[in-house]
Amino acid sequence: MKSVAGTSRGNDAVQRIIGISPWADQVRRSIELVAVHQSSVLILGPSGTGKELIARAIHACSTRSTKPFIPVDCAVTTGTLFASHMFGHVKGSFTGATSSTLGCFRAADTGTIFLDEIGEMELELQAKLLRVLQQRVVVPVGSHHELPVDVRVLAATNRDLASEVQEGRFREDLFYRLNVVAIRTIPLRERIEDVPVLAERYLAELAARHGMPMCTLSTASLDLLQQYTWPGNVRELENVLERAVMFSSGDQIDPDALSGLMTPGTGGESSSVAAVGQMAMAASRGIVSPTPLPGVYRVEPKMISAAPGGAPTAAQPAAGPAEADLWPTLADVERLHLERTLTATMQNKSLAAKMLGIDRSVLRRKLQRYGLDDAAEGE
Predict the structure, then answer these.
(1) What DSSP state is assigned to residue 291?
(2) From the first residue on, what is the mean pLDDT of each consecutive set of 10 residues in the chain (379 residues)?
(3) What is the pLDDT of residue 25?
(4) I need a surface site. Which of 4, 61, 92, 239 has the fewest CB within 10 A?
(5) Which run of H or E residues covers position 276?
(6) What whole-number distance in Å separates Cα of residue 128 and Cα of residue 269?
(7) d(CA 60, CA 9)
(8) Domains and CATH numbers, the chain
(9) Pairing state of beta strands 147-148 and 286-290?
(10) What is the CB neighbour count within 10 angstroms for residue 142?
(11) How far apart are CA 370 and CA 336, in angstroms?
(12) Residue 131: what pLDDT?
């Protein structure tokens, strides 16, 4: 059987598995080896590590590359809708069935079906799926005729299916039917050397695909990204970079554009220390209170009785004309608003400039004028 791994389609798909780590090299080789066969492949690994990307690369490198690739999210295909969604139905088979449908398996005929989150499938539905995989036929809802299907099955899950089998939550026979060949993904924190090349690719894609500015990472920003442990894996890296591009005022992403974008307390010791430092600074400048969102806090500036120089703040205006000399000046009000913005953004100067509607260089001058620059540099 001839491989199409050398074609443009196959090469492009394999090269989307980005990285210079030993894992990335191994996965690219595995894709080319298994693609030429028709066996089922089970892709295992944490969420956000590119399991569907691997499945699409296997399809693109196979002899079925010009045929359909049908992804199915097994986590949302549940209950009575499962059979109709997967195997199709005939017109009039149930209320609302005004026309016949193919179903995912028949739509993927001669191509590839990708069963994502297979570990979430209910036991009853696993039995129906097993029969299709064994017999290579489907019976549409409302019909009694078996229809043959020719599909290659790829599946993925972030669960340990061997443990799920032992616990009685996944059928052993289905597990062995799917687990002919296994490819494992690993967390991004275990291939941290891939972060620079991943970041470079995603920044280029953001510029080309979404019309966003073409940005590069400063050395300090790249160091920060490589120190983080990425609980959300590659998907989180994409998310962080997209937001960083939006919050950057120039064509280079500095550390302050990344500050506060990554989940506090989940990035290892250095990230946790930084998060604690940010929270301590916010608490010293305002009142920190939790919100309904886990890990998200509201910071309200403390309303002191008098601003520097003896002028009361906006919270305690002068009582009357006799105290007009104590009325806060515009500079006092501006200083207080700058402090409030800094605490609300957890000292993220790029975001603070965006919220204030001014250029970051203007914000820097204002912070220097009011002696707030040193505090803001402590991010």
Answers:
(1) -
(2) 59 89 96 94 94 96 95 81 84 77 92 95 89 92 89 96 94 95 96 96 89 88 90 90 82 80 51 45 47 46 44 45 58 81 80 82 81 59
(3) 96
(4) 92
(5) helix 268-285
(6) 47
(7) 6
(8) 8-186 (3.40.50.300), 189-262 (1.10.8.60), 286-379 (1.10.10.60)
(9) unpaired
(10) 16
(11) 10
(12) 92
Q: Residue with structure tokens 């995603």?
A: 202
Return the structure tokens found at 366: 């204002």
Q: Can you read off the two tokens belonging to residue 174? A: 């289905």
How far is 64 from 51, CA to CA, in rounded Å? Answer: 19
Report whether 43 contacts 55 (CB < 8 A). Answer: yes
What token pair was written down for 368? 């220097």
Task: With beta carbons less than 8 A apart as the criterion, state whether 22 and 186 touch.
Answer: no
85: which residues sit within 8 A by CB, 6+ positions away? Answer: 72, 77, 103, 104
Measuring CA to CA, which residue among 145, 187, 165 is closest to residue 51?
Answer: 187
Pairing of strands 137-138, 286-290: unpaired
Residues 161/179, Cβ–Cβ less than 8 Å: yes
pLDDT number for residue 234 = 93
Does residue 228 contact residue 264 with C-beta atoms inside 8 Å? no
- DSSP conformation letters of 128-155: HHHHHHHH-EE--BT----EE---EEEE
What local confidence, expressed as pLDDT, does residue 276 receive? Answer: 42
pLDDT of residue 98: 75
Q: Which residues of 27-38 are buried (b: 16+ CB within 10 A; e: fewer)?
A: bbebbbebbebe
Q: Which residue has the tokens 């280029």?
A: 204
- Nearest CA to 259 among 351, 359, 372, 375? 351
DSSP reduced 3-state for 308: coil
